[in-house]
Design brief:
By secondary structure, the protein is of the alpha+beta class. Among the domains are: 94 residues, no CATH class; 258 residues, Alpha/Beta hydrolase fold, catalytic domain (Rossmann fold, 3-Layer(aba) Sandwich). It is built from eleven helices and 35 strands. The strands form eight sheets. Strands 28-29-31-30-32-33-34-35 form an eight-stranded mixed sheet, sandwiched between helices. Strands 1-2-3-4 form a four-stranded antiparallel sheet, with no helix packed on it. A four-stranded antiparallel sheet has the order 5-6-7-8, with no helix packed on it. It is globular and about 65 Å long.
């Protein structure tokens, strides 16, 4: 299986300080660019033999891959991207780098390979309008990888064995048209697959590659049964499942007997997240879960001791292992908090030495950054909602301008940590509220399903209730409220402007849908197998026509009576540019003004540094004008 090299409940009641004199000093207004420019170094990864580091570093204003010899410190740039950042990379052996890149944000990623000498990169998937990825890097096979690609059918992905030396691609698993995912064991053998009929998902398994797949279990998409990892004998599996509970737990599973075995871990309040494991010891070492912050549950004494050691080095920070060598002696350590993007370190467990590699944003001083606090409140129907509040430093937290930023997805969640947008706005004297509204993930299947067909309705009410909570706590000025978000958050911003027109002073939609009918019609082809699921979660254009008309902002643009700012990438494959075009046209037709920013070389969000600067420069001016921000 592909390794980790590839690629957050307590109720918070803010205690107001009695006088401005007791506050921390107000920080200087920092340049917008400091919050959104590329880091000096990022994404460190260590070679399997532990002798080299690979990392991102800007070159020609684009994030490229560099390699550094640990012994000598000599580094060399090995990619030459000038049009767009390298999207991601990993080591293939200790002398080659595999990386991914798309064109103008179209998300049709190609897989490239280059050696550490800086030879010209080779495109291993040189096909137009094709999306490719790595299923398994086959770390024990120096000459091959398994690549998934939708070359034959844009809606589904076949599996190819790729010879990294010659570029030869051999089809080893042809998708019959209903397979939505594949999985290998620790030996790189293709052992599992998932098929769908549009709503129900079946888990397919085989003991070896010479056998046909057999169907083990079928679940409705509303429930989860997700094999995550084979054990190191490739016999049993570890699965994430909520079939018998509300919260997702980790179980051991016998695929030959099609039976759940031991319960490994379950948390009573939140879903269990990832599994930690050791290839060297051939065991799982722990699991992660997120309440207000990320937490660990360890099963291995050595891994628990290692975490304790690392946290003793950095007692005031969150500490995670980003990568390790094959001997599990040298580790890439990442520290972070709500007030710093963090720092990368190289830790050698043999001599207990820690060496600093790079701060991500050394120009942003922690004392100038604002704390992020976990909060919770009850929605109007009594449902407990969690979120985060970031308050400006050095300003009495009473009747502040406030921006609520709903997260995208919507099947996702916000978490605790450094948030560039929240820090940027807080530096301008604005409070920032992030709400994990119903429909967010991580809080169990009931909370998630409570968001079904609730776009613009109860999901939006949760966001509204969060803002009203902040006003009721005297944190926010009811006359200086804004809503801003990207993707689904962009939809929520438009919905806020339409359905609560007297609440907000302004709204900003960033790559946000405005017409659910056209949104569902224009999804990428490889999302088509999931379309029936989308109908159940959002609404069926035929059966729920009245509902979707009711909650699509474009049909109610005449209700928008506040300033609106819309930003869009022209090549967005998820939220087509037509979504933004429609709402801008409708608002202007209603005689209202709207700021419209389009970037022709971007997709679902702005990747290129100069485009980010342009967007946030206009966003700052927009909020300064309509919220009176600092």
């Amino acid at each position: 299986m592909i390794t980790t090299r590839l690629f957050f409940i307590a109720l918070f009641m803010f205690m107001f300080l009695p006088a401005a004199s007791a506050l921390a000093a107000m920080p200087p207004i920092l340049p917008m660019e400091d919050f959104f420019r590329n880091p000096d170094n990022a994404g460190f990864s260590i070679s399997p033999d532990g002798t080299r580091l690979a990392f991102f570093k800007p070159w020609e204003h684009r994030m490229n891959v560099y390699v550094r010899e640990i012994a000598t410190g000599i580094e060399k740039r090995i990619t030459s991207a000038t049009e767009r950042d390298i999207a991601g990379f990993f080591w293939k052996g200790s002398d080659k780098i595999v990386f991914a890149q798309d064109s103008g944000g179209d998300e049709n990623y190609h897989v490239y390979i280059t050696d550490i000498k800086g030879s010209e990169a080779r495109d291993l998937t040189p096909f137009e309008k094709v999306k490719a990825g790595i299923l398994d890097d086959l770390e024990d096979d120096p000459n091959h990888m398994l690549i998934d690609m939708n070359k034959n059918n844009p809606e589904v992905f076949d599996i190819y064995r790729c010879d990294i030396n010659t570029g030869e691609l051999v089809l080893i698993a042809e998708n019959p048209g209903n397979i939505t995912g594949w999985m290998t064991d620790h030996n790189g053998k293709l052992r599992c697959a998932w098929e769908t009929d549009g709503v129900n998902t079946s888990f397919l398994y085989r003991a070896n590659e010479s056998e046909p797949f057999r169907k083990l279990i079928t679940t409705n998409f509303k429930e989860e049964f997700a094999p995550v990892l084979f054990d190191y004998d490739n016999k049993f599996m570890y699965v994430a499942s909520n079939l018998s509970h509300d919260k997702t737990a980790i179980y051991k599973f016998d695929p030959d007997e099609n039976k759940l075995l031991d319960l490994i871990f379950e948390h009573p309040e939140v879903d269990t997240g990832g599994i930690l494991h050791s290839k060297k010891k051939r065991i799982i070492t722990g699991v992660t879960y997120t309440t207000d912050k990320r937490h660990y549950k360890f099963f291995d004494a050595d891994r628990e001791a290692l975490q304790k050691t690392l946290e003793e080095f950095f007692p005031n920070y969150e500490v995670s292992i980003a990568d390790m060598d094959d001997d599990e002696r040298k580790f890439i350590i990442r520290t972070y908090s709500d007030r710093t993007r963090g720092t990368y370190y190289l830790y050698d467990s043999k001599d207990n030495s820690m060496s600093k590699l790079a701060e991500l944003s050394p120009w942003l001083k922690e004392e100038n950054m604002a704390p992020m606090k976990a909060i919770s409140f009850n929605a109007r129907d009594g449902l407990l909602i969690h979120g985060y509040l970031t308050l400006p430093v050095g300003i009495n937290p009473v009747k502040l301008p406030l921006v609520v930023i709903p997260h995208g997805g919507p099947s996702a969640r916000d978490g605790w940590g450094f948030d560039s947008e929240a820090q940027f706005l807080a530096n301008r004297g604005i409070a920032v509220l992030q709400v994990n509204y119903r429909g967010s993930t991580g809080y169990g299947k009931n909370f998630w399903q409570a968001g079904f067909k609730q776009w613009g309705r109860k999901m939006q009410d949760d966001i509204t209730d969060g803002v009203l909570w902040a006003v009721s706590q005297d944190i926010a000025d009811k006359n200086k409220l804004a809503i801003y978000g990207g993707s689904y958050g962009g939809y929520a911003a438009l919905a806020g402007a339409v359905f609560t027109p007297d609440l907000y002073a302004c709204a900003v939609s960033y790559v946000g849908p405005s017409n659910i009918f056209t949104l569902l019609e224009s999804i990428p082809p490889y999302w088509k197998p999931f379309l029936e699921m989308e109908y159940e979660m959002i609404g069926d254009p035929s059966k729920d026509k009245a509902l979707l008309e009711e909650v699509s902002p474009v049909f109610h643009a005449d209700k928008i009576n506040i300033p609106l700012f819309v930003a869009q990438g022209a090549n967005d494959p998820r939220v087509n540019k037509a979504e933004s075009d429609q709402i801008v046209e409708a608002v202007r037709k209603a005689g209202k003004d709207v700021v419209y920013l389009v970037k022709d070389n971007e997709g679902h969000g702005f990747s290129n540094e100069e485009n980010r600067f342009d967007f946030y420069r206009q966003l700052e001016e927009f909020f300064r004008k309509h919220l009176g921000s600092r």
